[in-house]
Amino acid sequence: MANQETLLKGPVDVNGRLYAWPQSPVVVICVDGSEPAYHERAIADGRMPFLESMLQDGADLRAQCVMPSFTNPNNLSIATGAPPAVHGICGNYFFDAASGAEVMMNDPALLRAPTIFAEFADRGAKVAVVTAKDKLRLLLGHNLQGICFSAEKADQLTVADNGIDNILERVEMGLPPVYSAGLSELVLAAGVNILAQDRPDLMYLSLTDYIQHKHAPGSPVANDFYAMLDGYLADLDMLGAVVVITADHGMNAKSDGHGCPQVIYLQQILDQLPAGVLGGGTSRVVLPITDPYPAHHGALGSCATLYLPPASDLEAVTCRLIREDGIIEVLRRDEACGRFELPADRIGDLVVIADRNTALGTSPERHDLSALSEPLRSHGGLSEQTVPFLVNRPVNSLPAGHRLRNFDAYWVATALTEQ
Question: Per-residue confidence at 291, pLDDT binned at 50, 70, 90?
Answer without folding.
Answer: low
